[in-house]
Structure formats: C-alpha cells, structure tokens
Amino acid sequence: MNTRPRFTHAYDELAIVAEHVRAQRAEGDPALVEQGRMTAAVAATRLRVAATIAIDWQHYAKLRLPPIDATTRPERIESIQGALAGHRQRMERARQAIANEYGEGFLVRSMTELWALVDSHDPSTARVRPFLHHEGCTAALEAMLWWERMPRDRGIRFLTRMNMDLRAMGYVVQERAAA
After folding, report:
1. CA 167 to CA 31: how far, in whole Å?
2. Contact 107, 132 (CB under 8 A)
C-alpha cells in the first residue's frame, strides 16, 4: 500500500473503529468458540490484540503515547488485516444489496451524495447506511494498516512523540504540527 489512505490523519475515527473491532471480537468470538469454529486460545489472542490496538488509537487520538506492551507487529498486522477482510466482505454484500434493490445505476453516486441521501432520512435509502458504515470502517482499517506497516522512524508513535515534544517546547500552539 504505497498511497496514503483516506483516513490517515483521522485519529478520532481510527480510535472509534479500533474500539468497534475490539467490541466485535469481544461479543462475537465467544459464540464462534461455542460453535467449534474457533479455539478459545485464538479468540483470546484476537481479543488481546484488538484491545491493544484500540487502546493505542485512543491514546494517539488524544495526542498521548500508549503504553508499550508485548503485542508484536505481525500480530497487529494480522489482526487489522482480518478485520479489514471482514469489513470488505460486508461492504461488498451491502453494495450488492443496494444494487439488487435500487439498480447498479444507484451506485454511480459519490460518497457525498450517498451520505446526503442517508442524511435526508429518506426511507427508500435504508440499504445505503450499512454500506456507508462498512466503507468507512474499511477506510479506517486501511489507514491503521498503513500506519502499522510504516517504518518506526515515520510511524504514528514517532509522530505522536514529536508532536508532544514540539508542543511542550512551545514551538507550536496547534494540536498537531508534524504529519
């Protein structure tokens, strides 16, 4: 992924989506364990890694450094990729539901137009909201994955530390200086 994702600097939104993924795993994985579709150990690891990612992004959104933990970069990347794959599948199913109900031509609209339709509370656009939800989650997870793959000297932790230091030295008055 060489191009910068759309939500790269939308830290609050990334924190919300990371918490959403953590909650999905906390709520959904126990049922998968009960059904025998996942081991308890795998479920525990998925929840641990998702919780760590959620905590990290909550800190970054508040311009604070998260605590260092034992979660590895490969674990984090795998977790984000898994969540991303799930949201891409759900987004595609929602896109197909829109096409089935409203026709393929409906999907030529821009994201802004789709949000405007949803915001108008038009009941005929009920299928659009799930698509927009999963599209937004997908964009946020792509940004998280981009940050996770970034070399450490250009990563989100480094930039957060730099912004904290610049603010503490009084060089900047705005929330974030380096990006």
Report:
1. 46
2. no
Task: Check: CB of residue 16 under 8 Å from CB of residue 54.
Answer: no
Residue found by looking up tokens 């525990």 in the block? 44
Using alpha carbons only, what angle is made at residue 57 by residues 26 and 46, rounded to the nearest 5 degrees?
30
Q: Provide the 8-state DSSP code for 154.
A: G
Mean pLDDT, rounded, of the chain: 92
179 burial level (CB within 10 Å; 0-12, 13-18, 19+):
exposed
Q: How far apart are CA 10 and CA 125, in angstroms?
A: 27
What is the C-alpha to C-alpha distance for residues 9 and 82, in angstroms, rounded to an integer? 22
CA nearest neighbour of 56 among 65, 43, 48: 65
Beta strands in the chain (DSSP E): none
Using N-to-C axis directions, what is the helix angle for 73-102 and 40-61, rounded to 10°? Answer: 90
- Please answer whether residues 82 and 55 qualify as being in contact, where contact means their C-beta atoms are separated by less than 8 angstroms: no
d(CA 109, CA 122): 16
26-68 residue pLDDT tens: 999 999 999 999 999 999 999 999 999 999 999 999 999 999 9
How many helices (H) and strands (E) the chain has is answered by: 6, 0
pTM, two decimals, is 0.88
What's the confidence (pLDDT) of residue 140? 98
